[in-house]
Amino acid sequence: MTSTASLAALDVDQLAARLSQSEAERSTRGCSNPIRLQGSSVHVDAVTGEVVGTYSSDDEHDGYTYVRCGNRREAVCPSCSREYKGDAWHVLMAGLVGGHGVPETVRTHPSVFVTLTAPSFGPVHRATSTNGHGKKTPCRARRDRPVCPHGRPLSCTRRHTDDDRFVGQPLCRDCYDYTAHVVWQWHAPELWRRFTIALRRQLARSVGLPVSSKKGLGFVDFARVAYTKVTEFQARGVVHFHAVVRLDGPTGPDSPPLLDLSADDITTAVRAAAAHVYADADTPHGDTLRLRWGTQLDTRTITLGAGRDNSTGPAHPEMVGGYLSKYLTKGVEDFGLPTTGRIRSASDARHAGATDHACRIIAAAARLVTVNEDYQPIARRLATLGYRGHPITKSRAYGVTFGSRREARRTWRRRRAHLEPDAVVRDVLDLDPDQVDQVDAVITLGSWTYAGRGYLTDFDAANAVRTHTLTRIRRAQ
């Protein structure tokens, strides 16, 4: 028989265990899937050469050093994903309104928010919108009620919500061109590269100048195009690109463009370039497929005078920054694909719980491997539905980098003990690491080996989730 005293003691122990925070969890600041390392480091004063400190994983209670995983996807690690989203916000906003070394005058440069989509590979179910009377419109209402060659209806009168499982699924999976879908997806980064080249040429042509300055003055002597691009997966499993296109002076964001070009001129050039570029690709049938952008092209002028909640028309910089950074934390988990591990075939995807549409995309991608050697690397990209690009790319002179934001965060952690009580954190984040006092300059010499991923105990993992949740609650208050 368990006494009341022993039961009370047990409850106190459990409460103490829950309130206590393990060293592993504290060092990773709530990371859900940290990296375990083994090794040691020696900290040496850069001026005197004196050893000012040593550290070894043997000093930890379990013999491992835990570091944050740094994964951008919210489904993998909410804590690291939030940090990545914050870094992305600063990178994007610095290029829109200045800050972190980018002059605030950049906000006066003409900028456009562009969305480029893929063409249609077959009709799919879509989330219905609200008409002018406040009612949901049907998915694909057709009076003639046509059917495809396979006898399936090409119309749909249902009103789908955004989370409806039918959204993005083909009306007829046998009519849907999965091969063209995957070929376009694989070559989308190349199509974007050609678009940026064509955009510069269109802008140069609009002012009667060559792009380069090899034969006299060229467009680059008066203005330069800067951009950043974020990738988003549509419900039909194909990517589309959101981009900020900005016009700078010849030296970058610190100088205004020396040409009389407005945001409307950039919009005209964007539409002309998108309609002009194409890429030819081989197919399993032995023919050539000409790849182009879809007809759905959206352009919005970016201006501080726009409303922050505008869904159409001019866009506010904060709306653009928040919208783009939000999608950087998303992946292919909405299609039922695993967030970790490799997918080697459509059978793997089906076993993992992927949708039938995603499995068919993966099957079509796997067939492309046998076409020619150019498609062989697609076998390593089946988990991303054949997309091989990065979630975010930018031109060199767009603004600050992710690396600079991470270095600023490390500088703040290293120097915060020396700050004045009323110091502003933002001032420290804007410090140039090269300007750190020599007294604080320390060289770290380390030797580390990878030992695995994740916490060794459920207690540490639960504490990590708890810490992240409490942090979100405190920030929301």
TrEMBL record:
Residues 133-143 have a biased composition (Basic residues). Pfam families: RepSA (PF20199). InterPro entries: RepSA. Residues 124-145 are annotated as: Disordered. This is Replication initiation protein. It comes from Jiangella rhizosphaerae.
